[in-house]
Structure prediction request, 100 residues.
Amino acid sequence: MDRPIKINDLAKICDYSTAHFSRLFKARTGRTPHRYVLERRVDFACTELRTSDNSISDVAYMAGFSSQSHMTSTFKQLIGKTPNELRVSGAVQTHQLACG
Prediction:
């Protein structure tokens, strides 16, 4: 999770164009590849926040976010809370982005 995941690289692995890969991916998962990767990064970060004493900044980079700010804005968008709110409340649980 700590490295950039490029959709065109995934498409090349499958020998599809980026557009075709994205259409197939969304048809099978109900999500765009980008959204799916963001959700997996948030799930990973939730686990780290729950089970480690790593700083939120370290967790952000470990999960592959470009910054703590990027992770925070993604958390707010996807689950309605910041990473710190989750950690402080102790309600961090991984389950399809229901981290709290």
About this structure: The mean pLDDT is 89. Helices lie at 7-13, 18-29, 33-51, 56-62, 68-79, 83-89.
